């Protein structure tokens, strides 16, 4: 019997507004860095649900992965077209150094990062899943875990700890060379590998921890995450980083707790769709709202609150409109939005 993970639908719904809070800078000195757990959990949930499908029909693993990637590509193309006007404005600086450089950045970011804001998650999910699918039959589970942890540590070096290593010439050369080809690993497939792998390990039963142990890990790692963040902030003066070392144990603990909870929700499917629509559209909405609110000259702290509330409301309204309209056969293509 197929198990319905209502708790994961609820988790994605809540995490989608964590992400809105990040990009509207809602009380950053209070809520950071715990808000950063949102993107890792999105990756973990996606991989967990996909692996569950594979486990139910292992003979058709390649077909299941293919359908998964095609669905994400449709999601990408839908929002690419819808958000194109905003994307053109936002990405205009890519062409500041000429058409050739602009085209290079367009191609690089299309393949490995973002065109429309937030699209990097979709691209990273597809590429990380394909990489894992290729490697898992060739490399042992323990070795892959070690490799992906090392890759994540490298992402942390490029994110939270980047300032500390800027004086190292060799390090800077490696970073610049890599990013010239692939863009930043922080918003590309490298950062997704460990999170996707964690979801797969959970689905395969390779992570077995009691709720008591998971709760202890969650509390300790949450405290250490805050300590890590305060230390990095004190050293670098930057509070808005994507990757922290303590996000890894916290993601494992929180996902394990939520996955095994007995939460039941009536509108799980709607929550799942709202979370996806919100994730894909919210930054473009913020860009437009920010222009309007800046012209009104609202205080920054007040503006962040207004931005968050307005963005959340617009995302909800947009989601309900899409879910209503897609029931019309002529507008059935709207289902690609989620």
Write a brief structural summary.
The protein is an all-alpha fold and 338 residues long.
Write structural notes for this entry:
The protein has 338 residues and is an all-alpha fold. It has one domain. It contains 14 helices and no strands. It has helices at residues 6-23, 28-31, 38-56, 61-82, 84-90, 99-112, 120-135, 141-158, 169-182, 189-203, 211-236, 247-259, 268-296, 300-325. Helix 3 crosses helix 12 (247-259), helix 10 packs parallel to helix 12 and helix 13 (268-296) packs across helix 14 (300-325). It is globular. The two termini are 25 Å apart.
The arrangement of helices and strands along the chain is: HHHHHHHHHHHHHH
C-alpha-based Rg, rounded: 20 Å
Percent range for β-strand residues: under 5%
What structural class is derived from the secondary structure elements?
A: mainly alpha
Biggest β-sheet, characterized? none
**Multimerization state:** single chain
Low-confidence stretches: none
Distance, first to last CA = 25 Å
Structural domain tally: 1
Total E-strand runs:
0
Query: How many helices does DSSP assign?
Result: 14
> Per the principal axes of the C-alpha atoms, what is the gross shape?
globular
As a percent range, the share of helical residues equals over 70%
Give short descriptive properties of this protein:
14 helices, mainly alpha, globular, 338 residues
SSE topology:
Elements: H1 6-23, H2 28-31, H3 38-56, H4 61-82, H5 84-90, H6 99-112, H7 120-135, H8 141-158, H9 169-182, H10 189-203, H11 211-236, H12 247-259, H13 268-296, H14 300-325
């Amino acid at each position: 019997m197929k198990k319905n993970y209502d708790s994961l639908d609820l988790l994605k719904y809540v995490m989608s507004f964590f992400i809105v809070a990040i990009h509207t800078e809602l009380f950053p000195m209070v809520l950071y860095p715990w808000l950063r757990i949102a993107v890792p959990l999105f990756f973990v949930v996606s991989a967990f649900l996909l692996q569950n499908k594979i486990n139910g029909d292992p003979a058709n693993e390649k077909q299941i992965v293919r359908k998964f990637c095609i669905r994400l590509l449709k999601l990408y193309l839908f929002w690419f077209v819808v958000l194109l006007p905003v994307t053109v404005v936002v990405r205009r600086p890519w062409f500041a150094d000429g058409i050739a450089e602009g085209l290079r950045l367009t191609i690089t970011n299309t393949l490995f990062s973002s065109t429309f804001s937030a699209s990097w998650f979709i691209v990273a999910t597809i590429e990380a899943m394909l990489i894992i699918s290729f490697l898992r039959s060739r490399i042992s589970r323990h070795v892959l875990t070690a490799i992906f942890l090392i890759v994540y540590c490298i992402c942390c070096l490029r994110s939270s700890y980047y300032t500390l290593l800027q004086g190292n010439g060799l390090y800077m050369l490696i970073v610049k060379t890599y990013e010239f080809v692939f863009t930043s690993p922080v918003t590309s497939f490298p950062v997704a590998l460990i999170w996707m792998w964690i979801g797969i390990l959970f689905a395969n039963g390779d992570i077995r921890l009691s709720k008591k142990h998971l709760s202890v890990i969650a509390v300790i790692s949450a405290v250490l995450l805050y300590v890590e963040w305060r230390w990095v902030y004190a050293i670098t003066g930057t509070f808005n980083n994507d990757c922290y070392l303590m996000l890894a144990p916290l993601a494992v603990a929180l996902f394990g707790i939520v996955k095994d909870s007995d939460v039941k929700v009536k509108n799980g499917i709607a929550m799942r769709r709202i979370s996806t629509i919100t994730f894909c559209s919210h930054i473009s909405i913020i860009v437009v709202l920010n222009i309007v609110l800046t012209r009104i000259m609202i205080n920054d702290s007040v503006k962040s609150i207004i931005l968050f509330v307005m963005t959340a409301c617009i995302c909800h309204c947009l989601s309900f409109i899409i879910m209503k309209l897609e029931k019309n056969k002529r507008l059935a293509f709207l289902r690609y939005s989620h």
